[in-house]
Protein backbone atom coordinates (compact mmCIF):
# COMPACT_ATOMS: atom_id res chain seq x y z
CA UNK A 1 0.00 0.00 0.00
CA UNK A 2 1.35 3.41 -0.93
CA UNK A 3 1.74 5.96 1.86
CA UNK A 4 -0.24 9.04 0.85
CA UNK A 5 -2.32 11.65 2.63
CA UNK A 6 -5.83 11.85 1.21
CA UNK A 7 -7.84 15.06 0.94
CA UNK A 8 -11.53 15.01 -0.02
CA UNK A 9 -12.92 17.70 -2.33
CA UNK A 10 -16.44 18.98 -2.92
CA UNK A 11 -18.17 20.16 -6.10
CA UNK A 12 -15.74 19.91 -9.06
CA UNK A 13 -12.95 17.39 -9.47
CA UNK A 14 -9.76 17.97 -7.51
CA UNK A 15 -7.69 19.23 -10.45
CA UNK A 16 -10.11 22.15 -10.90
CA UNK A 17 -9.23 23.08 -7.33
CA UNK A 18 -5.46 22.93 -7.85
CA UNK A 19 -4.67 26.44 -6.58
CA UNK A 20 -6.43 25.74 -3.29
CA UNK A 21 -3.81 22.98 -2.92
CA UNK A 22 -0.66 24.76 -4.05
CA UNK A 23 0.24 28.34 -4.93
CA UNK A 24 0.06 29.36 -8.59
CA UNK A 25 3.42 31.13 -8.22
CA UNK A 26 5.08 28.03 -6.75
CA UNK A 27 3.83 25.96 -9.69
CA UNK A 28 5.09 28.58 -12.18
CA UNK A 29 8.55 28.77 -10.56
CA UNK A 30 8.82 24.98 -10.33
CA UNK A 31 7.71 24.57 -13.95
CA UNK A 32 10.39 26.97 -15.21
CA UNK A 33 13.14 25.36 -13.12
CA UNK A 34 12.10 21.85 -14.19
CA UNK A 35 12.00 22.82 -17.89
CA UNK A 36 15.50 24.30 -17.65
CA UNK A 37 16.81 21.20 -15.86
CA UNK A 38 15.10 18.79 -18.27
CA UNK A 39 17.12 20.12 -21.20
CA UNK A 40 20.46 20.98 -19.63
CA UNK A 41 23.25 18.46 -20.30
CA UNK A 42 25.11 19.41 -17.09
CA UNK A 43 24.40 16.87 -14.34
CA UNK A 44 25.83 19.02 -11.55
CA UNK A 45 23.67 21.96 -12.63
CA UNK A 46 20.52 19.81 -12.64
CA UNK A 47 21.22 18.63 -9.10
CA UNK A 48 21.90 22.19 -7.97
CA UNK A 49 18.66 23.48 -9.53
CA UNK A 50 16.66 20.69 -7.91
CA UNK A 51 18.26 21.17 -4.48
CA UNK A 52 18.21 24.97 -4.35
CA UNK A 53 15.02 25.95 -6.18
CA UNK A 54 12.81 22.88 -5.72
CA UNK A 55 14.06 21.78 -2.27
CA UNK A 56 14.44 18.20 -3.47
CA UNK A 57 16.87 16.05 -1.50
CA UNK A 58 19.40 14.77 -4.06
CA UNK A 59 22.46 12.74 -3.04
CA UNK A 60 25.98 13.16 -4.39
CA UNK A 61 26.69 11.81 -7.86
CA UNK A 62 23.06 11.07 -8.59
CA UNK A 63 22.29 11.64 -12.25
CA UNK A 64 19.11 12.74 -14.00
CA UNK A 65 18.98 11.88 -17.69
CA UNK A 66 17.50 14.17 -20.31
CA UNK A 67 13.78 14.97 -19.97
CA UNK A 68 13.25 13.64 -16.42
CA UNK A 69 10.07 15.18 -14.97
CA UNK A 70 9.97 15.64 -11.18
CA UNK A 71 6.67 16.56 -9.57
CA UNK A 72 5.87 20.18 -10.45
CA UNK A 73 3.65 20.81 -7.43
CA UNK A 74 5.44 19.06 -4.56
CA UNK A 75 9.05 18.39 -5.63
CA UNK A 76 10.20 18.87 -2.03
CA UNK A 77 8.58 15.48 -1.27
CA UNK A 78 11.14 13.70 -3.51
CA UNK A 79 14.31 12.24 -1.99
CA UNK A 80 17.03 10.55 -4.04
CA UNK A 81 20.05 8.88 -2.46
CA UNK A 82 23.65 8.93 -3.63
CA UNK A 83 24.98 7.59 -6.93
CA UNK A 84 21.54 6.81 -8.39
CA UNK A 85 20.49 7.17 -12.03
CA UNK A 86 17.05 8.39 -13.09
CA UNK A 87 16.55 7.37 -16.73
CA UNK A 88 15.39 9.36 -19.73
CA UNK A 89 11.86 10.77 -19.60
CA UNK A 90 11.06 9.31 -16.18
CA UNK A 91 8.20 10.96 -14.26
CA UNK A 92 8.29 11.16 -10.45
CA UNK A 93 4.92 12.11 -8.95
CA UNK A 94 4.38 13.20 -5.35
CA UNK A 95 0.71 13.99 -5.97
CA UNK A 96 -2.29 12.60 -7.79
CA UNK A 97 -5.52 14.45 -8.47
CA UNK A 98 -8.62 12.28 -8.63
CA UNK A 99 -12.32 13.06 -9.05
CA UNK A 100 -13.36 13.20 -5.38
CA UNK A 101 -9.95 13.61 -3.71
CA UNK A 102 -6.29 14.34 -4.16
CA UNK A 103 -3.37 12.50 -2.60
CA UNK A 104 0.12 13.61 -1.64
CA UNK A 105 2.98 11.30 -0.68
CA UNK A 106 6.75 11.18 -0.41
CA UNK A 107 8.83 9.48 -3.08
CA UNK A 108 12.00 7.98 -1.63
CA UNK A 109 14.64 6.57 -3.96
CA UNK A 110 17.59 4.89 -2.25
CA UNK A 111 21.33 4.81 -2.93
CA UNK A 112 22.73 3.28 -6.13
CA UNK A 113 19.30 2.82 -7.68
CA UNK A 114 18.91 2.53 -11.44
CA UNK A 115 15.58 3.64 -12.92
CA UNK A 116 15.14 2.83 -16.61
CA UNK A 117 13.85 5.23 -19.23
CA UNK A 118 10.17 6.14 -19.51
CA UNK A 119 9.26 4.91 -16.04
CA UNK A 120 6.60 6.50 -13.85
CA UNK A 121 6.91 6.60 -10.08
CA UNK A 122 3.68 7.20 -8.17
CA UNK A 123 3.43 9.08 -4.85
CA UNK A 124 3.99 7.31 -1.57
CA UNK A 125 6.51 4.70 -2.75
CA UNK A 126 10.01 3.82 -1.58
CA UNK A 127 12.59 2.26 -3.89
CA UNK A 128 15.24 0.48 -1.82
CA UNK A 129 19.01 0.76 -2.15
CA UNK A 130 20.61 -0.90 -5.19
CA UNK A 131 17.26 -1.70 -6.79
CA UNK A 132 16.89 -1.75 -10.58
CA UNK A 133 13.66 -0.57 -12.22
CA UNK A 134 13.27 -1.72 -15.82
CA UNK A 135 12.48 0.80 -18.55
CA UNK A 136 8.79 1.64 -18.95
CA UNK A 137 7.80 0.49 -15.47
CA UNK A 138 4.87 1.91 -13.50
CA UNK A 139 6.17 1.92 -9.91
CA UNK A 140 2.92 1.68 -7.95
CA UNK A 141 4.25 0.04 -4.79
CA UNK A 142 7.48 -0.20 -2.81
CA UNK A 143 10.50 -1.81 -4.44
CA UNK A 144 12.60 -4.00 -2.12
CA UNK A 145 16.30 -3.16 -1.81
CA UNK A 146 18.52 -4.98 -4.31
CA UNK A 147 15.66 -6.31 -6.41
CA UNK A 148 15.04 -5.99 -10.15
CA UNK A 149 11.47 -4.98 -11.05
CA UNK A 150 9.62 -4.18 -14.24
CA UNK A 151 6.36 -4.04 -16.12
CA UNK A 152 2.91 -2.57 -15.87
CA UNK A 153 1.74 -3.60 -13.40
CA UNK A 154 5.18 -3.72 -11.79
CA UNK A 155 6.37 -7.15 -10.71
CA UNK A 156 9.53 -8.40 -9.03
CA UNK A 157 11.63 -10.08 -11.73
CA UNK A 158 14.58 -10.96 -9.48
CA UNK A 159 14.88 -10.68 -5.70
CA UNK A 160 18.01 -9.31 -4.03
CA UNK A 161 19.25 -12.86 -3.44
CA UNK A 162 18.68 -13.87 -7.07
CA UNK A 163 20.45 -10.70 -8.26
CA UNK A 164 23.45 -11.45 -6.01
CA UNK A 165 23.58 -15.01 -7.34
CA UNK A 166 23.49 -13.76 -10.94
CA UNK A 167 26.27 -11.25 -10.21
CA UNK A 168 28.50 -13.88 -8.62
CA UNK A 169 27.94 -16.26 -11.56
CA UNK A 170 28.82 -13.45 -13.99
CA UNK A 171 31.95 -12.55 -11.97
CA UNK A 172 33.07 -16.19 -11.94
CA UNK A 173 32.63 -16.51 -15.72
CA UNK A 174 34.48 -13.26 -16.28
CA UNK A 175 37.38 -14.47 -14.09
CA UNK A 176 37.63 -17.74 -16.07
CA UNK A 177 37.99 -15.94 -19.41
CA UNK A 178 41.00 -13.84 -18.34
TrEMBL record:
Record's keyword terms, sorted: Transferase
What superkingdom does the record give? Bacteria
List GO molecular-function terms, semicolon-separated.
Answer: transferase activity
Q: Which InterPro entries match?
A: Hexapep, Trans_hexapeptide_repeat, Trimer_LpxA-like_sf
Pfam families reported for this sequence: Hexapep_2
Q: Which SUPFAM superfamilies match?
A: Trimeric LpxA-like enzymes
Tell me the protein's name: Acetyltransferase
Q: Which organism is this protein's natural source?
A: Virgibacillus profundi
Amino acid sequence: MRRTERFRVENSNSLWQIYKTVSFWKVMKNFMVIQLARYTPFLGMKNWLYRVFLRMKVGKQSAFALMVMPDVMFPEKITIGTNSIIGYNTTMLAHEYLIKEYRIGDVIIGNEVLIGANSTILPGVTIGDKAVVSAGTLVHKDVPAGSFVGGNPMKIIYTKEEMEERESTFSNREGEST
